[in-house]
Write a structure and sequence with these properties.
By secondary structure, the chain is an alpha/beta fold. The chain contains 15 helices and eleven strands. Strand 8 (about 190-195) and strand 9 (about 200-210) form a beta hairpin. The longest helix has 25 residues, at about 1-25. It is globular.
Length: about 400
């Protein structure tokens, strides 16, 4: 018993000296948080899987790579938010997938998304945030190789997908008319996947939002509004096919994937909420004239498109007014055809990254000639010009010249 007591005393004294010295040595040091299993990444993904259905390099065995990637590292206050967020702000079907995939392949660095399900598989479990202590994201696919080619996060800016708000397709004005404040919140919002009980089949989708002041740069992607509307029609077509909905046969019979089908789709889309649209734009405080809109085919789509780009400018202005400067690079989808190398270089330089991968050709997969006649184009021009703020009109007027 005496020996045991002596040993216990020595242990207590040793522990006191060790922890006392440790506290003294770290008294002036910043707090350190330890995070495990948070290395690696790639987010070479998008909801439009038809852009690139197969991985561009061979996948790695998950467990082997997971063990190689597992390590402990310290997060200090001055490096917690590295890399910085650079939004890719795009109205849906503006070339988001191509821009994201191109950037990842060319820089061999990961990309990110506000939408966790796009960068997560069931086998991966919980969604991975690019900031380990911040589960609200943005998110990436890590280094598992289960979803995309493993690529590490950049040290500078990570290109991060966001579609913001004002983009619902089949909806009344109360769901697509927004303010700059509500739009900005949706730019910083998304969703993550959370696994429960250690069961990868038992997960829940959780809405999340991160502070918009974490955004330090933005790429504003713009596509011809008339082509964008047609692409949205094709997206609706594909989504209905994937969902195996009961009305898919009637839908595909009524709306062929051609200019006649598109025009019929526009007529029905405009007619579905005609009374609500008319009532809103006639009776609300809206500055938009219903007379300018009512005869335009797919007028709700062109309103959403124009409002979206207005609010993209205004929301960045809110961050700059309340927090810090946010440099913006404007990229036109059509420049991938006419100024491909210059456009690619501008994106990589803007993200302060290097070109190390192979540049692939851009394939134009659409021919939209004949979808609009000259009268339609004139009506659309008048509507877009009437709704646009000065910034937007200056950037999009060339589509109507």
């Amino acid at each position: 018993q005496a020996k045991a007591l002596i040993v216990l005393c020595f242990l207590c004294i040793g522990s006191y000296v060790y922890h006392g010295n440790k506290r003294a040595a770290t008294a002036d040091a910043p707090p350190i948080d330890i995070s495990i299993d948070t290395i690696g990444g790639n987010a070479n993904t998008d909801t439009n899987a038809d852009i690139d259905a197969e991985p561009d390099t061979m996948m790695y065995p998950y467990e082997e790579l997971r063990q190689k990637a597992k390590r402990v590292f310290a997060l200090h206050p001055d490096n917690e938010f590295v890399p910085k967020i650079a939004w890719l702000m795009s109205f849906p079907n503006s070339g988001t997938s191509f821009t994201m995939i191109l950037t990842a392949r060319l820089t061999e660095r990961a990309i990110a998304s506000n939408y966790g399900e796009e960068v997560t598989t069931r086998e991966m479990g919980d969604t991975l945030s690019i900031y380990p202590r911040r589960p609200e994201g943005p998110f990436w696919s890590g280094m598992s190789g289960l979803l995309t080619t493993p690529r590490p996060l950049p040290d500078t800016y990570v290109l991060t997908k966001t579609h913001c708000g004002s983009r619902c397709m089949d909806c009344p004005p109360r769901e697509y008319v927004e303010t700059a404040e509500s739009f900005l919140r949706r730019c910083a919002s998304g969703y993550r996947r959370k696994m429960f009980g250690g069961d990868k089949q038992n997960w829940r989708r959780i809405d999340v939002e991160y502070p918009s002041e974490r955004v330090h740069k933005a790429i504003h992607l713009i596509r011809n509004p008339m082509h964008n509307a047609i692409a949205r029609f094709h997206l609706d077509y594909r989504n209905r096919q994937k969902s195996h909905s009961a009305d898919i046969r009637a839908f595909t019979k009524k709306y062929k994937q051609d200019k006649r089908g598109f025009r019929a789709w526009c007529r029905d889309l405009d007619g579905r909420y005609a009374s609500e649209n008319e009532r809103y734009f006639l009776q609300s405080q809206s500055t938009v004239s219903w007379d300018v809109m009512k005869d335009v085919p797919c007028h709700t789509e062109f309103f959403k498109w124009t409002q979206w780009h207005n609010l993209a400018h205004e929301s960045i202005g809110l961050i700059e007014k309340e927090h810090h400067e946010v440099p913006v690079l404007t990229v036109y989808y059509e420049d991938y055809v006419s100024r491909y190398n210059e456009t690619v270089d501008s994106i990589v330089d803007f993200l302060e990254q290097e070109k190390v991968g192979t540049l692939r050709d851009f394939q134009v997969r659409s021919n939209y000639d004949g979808y609009y006649d000259s009268e339609h184009v004139g009506q659309i021009r008048a509507m877009v010009e009437a709704i646009s703020n000065d910034n937007t009109w200056e950037k999009v007027k060339h589509y109507f010249q």
